[in-house]
Amino acid sequence: MDGDTLKATIDGKEETVRLILVDTPETVHPSKPVQPFGPEASDFAKETLEGKDVELELDVSERDQYGRVLAYVWIGDKMFNEMLLEKGLARIAIFPPDVKYVDRFREIESKARQKEIGIWSIENYATEEGYNETSETQGNTGNTSSAKASADCDDPKIKGNINSSGEKIYHVPGGQFYDVTNPEEMFCTEEEAQAAGYRKSKR
Length: 203
Fold this sequence. Notes:
Residues 131-165 are annotated as: Disordered. One of its GO terms (molecular function) is endonuclease activity. The protein folds into 2 domains: 5-138, CATH 2.40.50.90; 147-200, no CATH class. The protein is built from 4 helices and 11 strands; from the N terminus they run E-E-E-H-E-E-E-H-E-H-E-E-E-H-E. It has helices at 38-49, 80-86, 102-115, 190-195, and strands at residues 5-10, 13-19, 22-23, 55-57, 69-75, 78-79, 91-92, 158-162, 168-171, 185-187, 199-200.
């Protein structure tokens, strides 16, 4: 059981349930390492839900493309999807049309973010697109002094450029397009470029 999927017996049949509007870090992905706070989310799901009667509330879609039941999971008068967000163990993941509680969830997520708990305690880890593998190097020490401090080196060499489709890409010296790139921004380190939302040029 991952933090955002669980097994439930519905009408006597075991089903996999995928929580709507939330995404927890991976613990059981076949090709990805265990991500920070994935085990915590998974353990919290087990502690809270295992062996308990829950109510499933559906939104517009009944199932996802993998055949999993899409639901908001209620245990008593609390919604488990919200509990994950409150504890900083999940980020919001929006897949229309299932957006019934999105505004409420955004409020909860922003409170967790302000408190810097769970996934929000690692700088640049949780993003709109998912969890950023590269930020794990800082560990969970709460050390968030990474990229910003290094911006004032004397001779930044990394060029950050925004291409015609709005993608932010950075180029390092020696790269195929380095010399022809007109930078929007310059960076001292690749980490700094990534923290500003740029991805590395593929060539």
